Structures are given as C-alpha cells and as structure tokens.
Amino acid sequence: MEYYKEKPFIHLFQTPLGNYFYDVNTNEIVKIDLKTYEYLNGEVNNETDEIRKKLYDLEMNGYLKKSHVEITKHPLTDILPFYATNKIGQLILQVTQRCNLHCEYCVYSGNYETRNHTNKKMSLSIAKKAIDFFQEHSTDQNNVTIGFYGGEPFLEFELIKECVAYAEDKLEGKKIEYSVTTNATLLTDEIIDYLIFNNFFVTVSLDGPREIQDECRRFLYNNKGTFDIVMKNLRKIKEKDINYFEKNVRINTVLVVERGYECIDQFFKEENIFENLMISASTVSDNYAKTKSKISEEFHIEQQYELFKTFLVEIGELEKEKESSLLSEYLKQLYEMCRKSEEKHRNELPKSWHRGGPCLPGIMRLFVNAEGILLPCERVCEISECAQIGTLEKGLDLEKMQWILNIEKVTEDECHKCWAYSECSGCIRFGNNCREDLKKLILKKCPEIKGNVENAFKDFTVLCELGYDFDKLDC
User: Which fold has domain 80-328?
Assistant: First the structure.
C-alpha cells in the first residue's frame, strides 16, 4: 500500500483563533486542540493517553478515515447522454469575433498563445441552426437562457434582434431569459430601449476609475480610453429605467494586479450609480499568457486589508459603508464551499468518484462559436481540439463530452491523493490545443487552487469563531 494511504486523509491548518483539520472523507472542517494538532502534524511523536482518547473520539465520530478514491468516474457519466439530448439549459452565441476595443489582457488580444480577434461573424443561418439545435435538445427545460457573446456583440445588433425574434417563435411555450456581455461603448438609445423591452440581463465590463479603465480598455481605431462613454451609457440606462438598471445590470471588473486595489474599490464604493448593482471582480487570467502578470505588494496588502474590514462589518464591528464593494460575493462563496449541509456531508469517499471542477459540458452553458463549433462554455479555449464537443452539422460528440466530464483521468494519480479533491476547480478550460500538454497545464494550476481553498477554509472558520451566522445567506 502507498504510504499516503496509511495516514488519515486530512489537511491540517491553523488560524489565530484555532487549530483545525479538513476531513476529506466526510467533507467537514473539524476544530481540535493544539496537542492533537501537533500530533497529527508530526510535530510530536509521543502518543499520550490524552491524545489517544481524543483520536479515538474523533474516529468514533467518523473522522480520520484513510479511504481514497480508487476509480475515476464522474457520477453523472452514465446519464450525460440523456441530459445532452433533453436538458440543455443555456445557449451562448458568439455573434462575432470582432471587437471595437483592444485590451491587452483580453484572451483575444494576441498576447495569449490561444486565439485572436478576427473578422469572423456568425451568419443568420448558423444562428438559426443553433437555436433549432437548442430547441431540439431542451425538451425537458421549461426555463431557458440565450446569451450573446463576442468579441463585442453589439457590433452585430441586427443579428441579435433577428435571433431573439426567431427564438421567440421557435421556443414558444418556454420562458426565455436573454443575457449579453458587453463593453457598453456601443449602447445607443435604440439598443438600450431594446434591452429594457426584452428584459435582457446585461454584464458590463468596467475596470475602475478613469485612469485604470482608460489604461486597460482602449478603442481599437484611435487608442483612446473608454471610461467616459461607458459611464455615460450606464447613466443613460439608469435614467431610462432605474428598476431595470438595478435588477438587470451587472458589472464585471478585471483587477489589474500590478496596480493598487484600494483605488478600484473606492471608485465603485463612492460612485452612487453602483450603489445597488452586483459587482464581480476577478484577476487577469494567466492561462497561456505570453507574459505573466505580477501581483504588486501594494495590491496584495490593500486587498487583504479590505477583506479584513469586510469581515469586521459582517460581525458588527464596523459600519456597513466600510465594506469592500468588490468582495460582496465572497461570503456567499465561502458559504457554498464550507458550510456543513446534508448535500455536502458524506460518511466516506466512494471508491469510484470524480474530483470537483468539471460541470456537465455543454449542458449548463452550450457555447456556439461564429463558425458553428460547439464547446462546453465560453470560458474554454475555442481553438482547442480537446474542448470542442461537436458541430451544428454533426451534432454533439458524446464520447468527447464524457471524456471532458472525466478530466480527472488525465491527472488521477495526483488527484486521488490530493486533500482538495472535492473543492478542486480544475477543468478543460485549463487546456490548450494538444492533449499531450493537458496534464502539465492542469497540474500547474494545483498550487493556486489549493491555496485558494485553504484560504477560504481559514476565512470561514475565523468568521464562525467570531459568531458570524452563515445560515442567513441561505436564501
């Protein structure tokens, strides 16, 4: 038997308020005293009667098992064909690969070893075939979503209108929700009125105050910044229909880690227009980047300070206005990852299972690119042969979809011994053109993933120790 299977399958960690282990088999975080922690961590070899009793009590409560997954098989593998035939829930159409901006960190910018902006656009014929395909493969779904993606989708506003009209006819009887991701520079009165009338959910890309937005997001044709026009168009939406604006408009900001964090956070906090909007923040993706972003010390310190203040707000030690505007979703993420619940607790790891990470490819978010190629979602590299799951002409490749769903097989030797097995976020989006590189690319992300999971565990346990009630987020 391998050495790692002779030890309890746990991960130890400490915070200023306690000592803990994450029990992989039960999927629970357990608080322990310092002596037990030191013994389990190998710092103390002397197994005293006191420690022996505590270990016995833990074992009697179902913890400290040594079981590992032995066979890689996603539990939804066998029902994937049924879902692919009947339950596709969201269609995302890449109506164009063109963009009117040139953002250096964009995956289409040419600064990545994957793909570039091109002049390719989706024809009405392909769009209709995609909607037909969606109708045929969503028979068990009463509520569906159609999203529009680019490039910049409003370069093809007429196509979007034709798609909506066709979908309303083709998907009659279903409740259809529409969404679009945009840089908001092309929003005319006509487009805004159309979005409001059709109740579109709109995600607007905005990276912060003028100096940051204009540095990061510039027009392709004259290299000028976009801050003023984006803010003007956001205000125009709000003036036309404030209820629609607060319910349907969301902001996505890409944090430029070479710069400071506080100035971005303060911008979204102080501008009244963002007061009731959902704001999501992420850092620049380094997947396949030719040059890597380096997080500045200033950014890291300021981000951690804002997180600290947010925690103080949540436990009632600071007033609400001190809370970071960019961390509003983080507590919900902690809750989903760490809470003890019936659906997440288990007695033991099954012998046959699959780590966290992959979703049902193409079922939750079927992405159709401008040429009619089918992909699991819009986040994967669309030129990757590994990620392509079919075409509109030939249909879905179920064998490929099942391979993607069981992506752990590429790294199963490492995965089966990894403590972050259940909370892993690795999937096919980390891959590129060739399967030979896939294992290397997935494993390269492991330290970052495990670091994020451990930090989440620490934040969760500290908040629990301070009396924060996570159950109030269950709504």
Answer: TIM Barrel (3.20.20)
- Beta-bridge partners for 298: none
What SS3 class is residue 474? Answer: coil
Q: Which helix (H) or strand (E) holds 192?
A: helix 189-197
CA distance 86 to 205: 33
Q: How far apart are CA 82 and CA 241, in angstroms?
A: 42
**CA-to-CA distance for 379 and 373, rounded, in angstroms?**
14
For residue 122, report the phi and psi dihedrals to the nearest 5 degrees. -80, 135
pTM higher than 0.70: yes
At 289, the pLDDT band (50, 70, 90 cuts) reads: very low
Residue 270 burial (CB count, 10 A): 12
Q: How many residues does the chain have?
A: 475
420 residue type, one letter:
A
Residue 133 and residue 126 in contact, taking contact as beta carbons nearer than 8 Å: no
Structure tokens at 212: 């940051």
- Asked if pLDDT for residue 301 goes beyond 70, the answer is yes
pLDDT in tens, 191-212: 999 999 999 999 999 999 999 9
Kindly state the greatest CA–CA separation across the chain.
77
Cβ proximity of 455 and 338 under 8 Å:
no
Is the Cβ–Cβ distance between 65 and 8 less than 8 Å?
A: yes
Q: Residue for token digits 């607790």? A: 345
pLDDT for the residue numbered 4: 64
**pLDDT of 431 strictly over 90:** no
Model confidence pLDDT, tens digit, residues 178-194: 999 999 999 999 999 99
Answer whether 146's CB lies under 8 Å from 134's CB: yes
Q: What is the pLDDT of residue 76?
A: 96
Instruction: Confirm if 219 and 262 have CB atoms less than 8 A apart.
Output: no
- Amino acid identity for residue 450 in this structure: K
Is-contact 279 250, C-beta < 8 A?
yes
66 with 7: CB under 8 angstroms?
A: yes
Q: Please, what sign has the CA dihedral across residues 197, 198, 200, 205?
A: negative
32/40 Cα distance (integer angstroms): 10
**Closest C-alpha among 250, 425, 454 to residue 334:** 454
- Asked whether the beta carbons of 59 and 23 are under 8 A apart, the reply is no
Q: Which two tokens stand for residue 161?
A: 């209108």
Query: Amino acid letter at 164?
Result: V
Extract the tokens encoding 60: 């009697």
| pLDDT-derived band at 256, boundaries 50, 70, 90 | confident
